[in-house]
Every structure is written in structure tokens, then in C-alpha cells.
Amino acid sequence: MVILLIPLLLPVLTAVAYLAAGWRRSTAWLGAGSAAVVLAAVVVLAVQVLAAGPRTAVGGLLRADALTAFMLVVVAAVALVACAATPAHLRGEIAAGHASARTATRHTVLVQLFLAAMTLAVLAADLGVLWVAVEATTIITAFLVGQRRTRAAVEAAWKYVVICSTGIALALLGTLLLNYASLHAGSGAGLDLAALADGAAGLDPGVTRIAVALLILGFGTKAGLAPLHAWLPDAHSQAPAPVSALMSGVLLSVAFYAILRVKVIADAALGVGFARTMLVVIALASLLVATTLLIAQRDYKRMLAYSSIEHMGLLALGAAAGGPLATAAVLLHMLGHGLAKSTLFVGAGHVLQATGSSRIADVRALASRSPVLAGCVGAGVLALVGFPPFSLFASEFALARAGFANGLGWATAAAFVLVLVIAAVLVGHTSRMLLGASTAAPGAAPAPLPLPIGAATTMVLALVGCAVIGVGAAPLAPLLARAADIVSGTP
Amino acid sequence: MSEALLTQLVGLGAGAVLLTAVLVLWLRELAVVIRVFAAQGVALAGLVAVLAVHEGSGELAVVAVGVLVLRAGLLPHLLRRALSAAEGERRVTRPLVNVAASLLAAAVLTLLALAVSQPLVALAPSPVTAAIPVGMAVVLIGFFVLVTRRRALSQLTGFLLMDNGITAVGFLTGAGVALIVELGVFLDVLLAVLVLGVLTGRMRDVFGRTDLDELRELHD
Questions:
Q1: CA separation for the pair A318, B8 (Å, rounded)
Q2: In Å, what is the CA distance from A287 to each residue of A355, A411, B93?
Q3: Given A193, A393, B110, B174, which residue has the most CB atoms within 10 angstroms?
Q4: Residue B57: predicted pLDDT
Q5: Positive/negative CA dihedral, B29, B32, B36, B37
Q6: Whole-complex ipTM
Q7: How far is A470 from chain B (nearest CA, A)?
Q8: Contact B152/A at CB under 8 A
Q9: CA–CA distance, A178 with A190 (Å, rounded to integer)
Q10: Strand, helix or coil at A114?
């Protein structure tokens, strides 16, 4: 099953290559090349899984069903965006004196290891291995968040590691308790995700209830869901742009994938009510937090980070609604959000490099200084708030329909009121940055803002991808349907 | 091993783990807290060793040695090194809640742990699982330390306390987790502590001290 190992081992090999050769002109595009090969491999894997069912490797430790295959596509697509934007970002940092060739090498090595850890998390057949991989992502990214060694960066890294490690420790406790319940269910399932889901009816409800609550809370921390979301805006705003793109675009979704796997087991063992109630409360709390802190937001990177909390809240709402439609919408939303959010973080990184400030008030008249960058940021924000033709329109629409159809009418209505408020706030903040009057002396033309051609191409292609998925999700439909069947327990 | 002896030994080990957790709340001198933490590591390793003898499991005996090396040797050593780098700072914890209230909170948390763990004990009543509430209590006390301490190093001890509690629950509930997962958990805890140690050092470089009250750059 070589195809299963490519997305896992290729990033590791790339990391080794960077470690050996260092970051230089000739190796700058190695990461993007590796990400492109991985994307091709996971598409082949997805086709195989659809044709021939789940694939396993390494003695059953790795397993790819339709849900895993879809998550691999999400990880690989956003990884390609982030890796393609990396050379321009690092050149800019080195030119500005924020980084040296040495820190650039370290950055690329850590990013590749980060990708490998996320791939392991979605490929793991065993809840224990999944836990180890998610914790590994925290450790690797801690160094990336604190890369600049400023006061703010160190503070963000500290909060990130302490809160996420604590949250993920709760998930470990939940994992151990689930193992305990599984041990006494006598099915010999251990922590194997598929076997646990099959034999969930035999799990002791009392123990499973505690375990599921801890697992949802723990992985929810890593997914940036309330109440343990406080690390997210700090870490996402302090990390270098391509890393923010990966953390916001996929790491949150990978943690949410863990919640989906837990929910399958919880629904079979406890009925749908338990996980649903928890997820609805968490979803509304996250949306409320995001709304209140977005309204008076003064920092555009933090604005994007809070918008990620909003979208994770929407995913939680969709998971709570359950059923094939809602689940397919949740998965499609992950992909669309990943592409749009990574584009925006890459764009925000270039704005930050050019203006030296992450305050919304310091960025004005972007549209006349760099039409391409302004166009990408504007289109990205429109995608984020759910304008057609971008795929987030389709997925949010489906989420709302499923929410009303599955008996979550009030929660869905409240959630979408908050989503509308957030949309208005996001568009308002962004339009001030793009179209606001220039602060330069009257009469003087505003200084043009340089945008490397590589970064521009990456952002445009990612947005086009997001729109293409929104217009015609047909090639993805069978994969989405099969994955949704796995989550909603109707194989 | 007879049932009565097993009950006594498990009770002794679990009691020592809980007592050391409460001591961490009570003591202020960080160097002493680290010593108490090491003692808790020894008690935890002893608990695992008792289980290993009881089940006649060689694998569990190896794990017991691993627990001893990591929790009574390596982690306290790393903490001590981080502390000795903090020359010039007052080496005492600065809790947000005073000692008397902390001890009261520990009592309440222990009762809470007993109440929450009832289904866990009821699933397979035995002298071993009867000690699960103690592990849960240590997790809660560790969490309490984590949220009520202002020094980076004190927060770190809270995190490690939580982790010891989780490990205790893991072994008391059967420890059937595959060896590869256990290795992964060991490694992750060690790395998390190393990362936090590095960050403590960086914090001292840029802030001059590790008082988390200084962390005010990022807020909304």
C-alpha cells in the first residue's frame, strides 16, 4: 500500500532534504513540488478507496476510508497553497531582516514535519495514534508560532502550548476511559476506530459518556472551539503567514475530524442526543465569542483568526445536526474554508510585510496600491462570508437547510443571525482596508505595494479552486457521500 | 499477591500520589515543589510496579521503570534546570488564591472526583479500580494549580500534575493501550515539557522574568 505512505513519508523526506541542503534559491520550490506530488497521490488514493473500499497499511495502524481520503485531499490542497506561498514569504522576511537563511531552513523543515503529523492524524486507524499525532502538531507548531522571538510571539507560543496541551491532555484522559470501556465490552476492539464504531452498542454508557465529553472538549480545544479557544487569535496572528494559513486552514479541521470520529462512536453507544447537545452549546458559544470580538477588532490577522472560530462553530453546528446532508456540507465547508482562509492569510502576510503593521487602521487604499493583492483579499473575504460562486455558499446553505430539517431550528436561526452580523463586520473592516482614503499627503500618489508573482498566482489559483468546487462539486460528490455515510453511521 | 495485600498496596500508592498533589498546593518554595513532584513520580512508578507484580506482566514492569525514569528523574531534572536558570527571581510560587482556600478547593475537587468517577468504578469493581477516583482528583487538582498560578514554572508543575493523574487513571483502568501509543504519550509529554522549558527561557530573555502577569501584549 505504497500510495498510503506517500503523503506521510514524502514530507518527512522533504524535511530531511531541507535539513541537508538548507533553504536557498535552488531548493526554494522543493516544498511546493512535494506538496503537489502529495496532492496527486491522495487524489489517486481517493479514487482507489471509492472503487475498492478502505485501504490499510503498516499492519493495520494506518487506514484510509472515504472520510480519511477526503481529509487527505483537504490537507494536501491547503498544504499546496501554503507551500507555494512560502518562497515569496521567506524572501520577503530575509529582505526585511526578520529572518536569515538558517531560520528559513528551520521554518521549512518544521512545516514539512507539521504536514506529516497532520497526515498521520487523519490516516491513524487507532484513536491512540490519532491523539499522539495531534499532540505532535502542537509541539512542532509551537516553534513556528514563536519564530520571531518578539514579546508578542513568545507570549502567543506560551499560551498556545499551555492551553492546547491541557486540552489535549483531557482528550488523552477520554481516550484512556474509552479504552477502559472497550476493554470491558469484550469485543477486543481496543482503540481501533472502525471496530469501536461497529461494537459501540456494547460499550458501558456511564463510562462512555465521560470519555466522549472529555474527547469533544479536548479535541475541541485544538479545533479552536469555545470555551478553550483563547490561544487561537494569538497563535494565528503571530505565526508566519504560510504557517497561519496551515493552522487556520487545516489544523483546525484535522482536530475537528477527530471530533467527527468520536461522534460516530458516541452516537452508536449513547444515542444521538448526547453529542448533539454538547456540540450545539459549543457551536453557539464559539459563534458568540467570534461575533463579539470581531465587531471592535483592530488587527486584521486577529480578524481572520476570529473568523476561523466562527467557521469551526458552523462545523460544530453541522455535526450536531447530523445526517448525510449536514455531514457532507461540513466536509465541503472544511475544504472551502481551508482554501479561502489560507489565501487570506497569505495575502495578509504580504500586506504585513509591505506596511509593517497588522492594524486595520494603518492599511488604507490597498486597491490603488496593489490591485491584484486587493482583489485577492476582497474576493477571499467574499468567499469567507459565503458569496456565490465560492463553495462556502453551497456548504453554508446546506448546513442551514439540514439544521432546520433535523430539529435544530432555533439554534440554526440564532447561529445564522450571528453569521450575518460577522459577514457585515468582515466586509466593513475589509472595505476600509481596500478602499479607505489614503493616509499619504494629499495629491501624492500612494506608494505602490510590491506583490511577488508566485504569491499572486497561488492566491488566484486557490480562489479559482474554491469557486470551481462551488460551481461544480460533482467529481467530489461520490467521495463526500461515502464519507458522510461513515460519519452519520449509515453505511 | 493476596487480595488484602493488593488492596493495601494500591491504597498506599494512590494515597501517596494524592497526598503529594495536595502538598504542591500547600508549599510555596519552588525547589521543594519540584522535590515533591519527584516523590509523586516515585509513588506512581510504585503503583505501576504493584500492578505489574499482581498481573505478572513483564511489559508492565518495563513501563514501571520507564515511569520512574521519566517522572521521578528526567522531568524533575528539567524543571530544576529551568529553575536554576532563574537566578535573581524570587523562587516562590505566587498563587492567585491563598493556601487555606486552595486546600479547601482540593477537598471539594476530591469529592467531585469521587462523584464523577462512580460509573468508572461500577463498571468493574475491584481493589484496583477503587483507586480511580484518586487519579481523577489529581487531574482536577493539577488543573486547579494550572489556572491559579502566575509563574510560568508553577503552571508547568500544574500541567505535569494533571499528566500524572491521567497516567494513574490509565494504569488503574487496565493499561491495555498498545505499547506504541504509550511510547508516543511518553515522548509527547517529554517534548511538551522541553518546549515549555525553551519558551520559559525565551520569556526570560524578552521580558526579563517569567511572571505571567507580564504577558499583556496580546488581548482584545
A1: 50
A2: 31, 11, 36
A3: A193
A4: 82
A5: positive
A6: 0.94
A7: 34
A8: yes
A9: 9
A10: helix
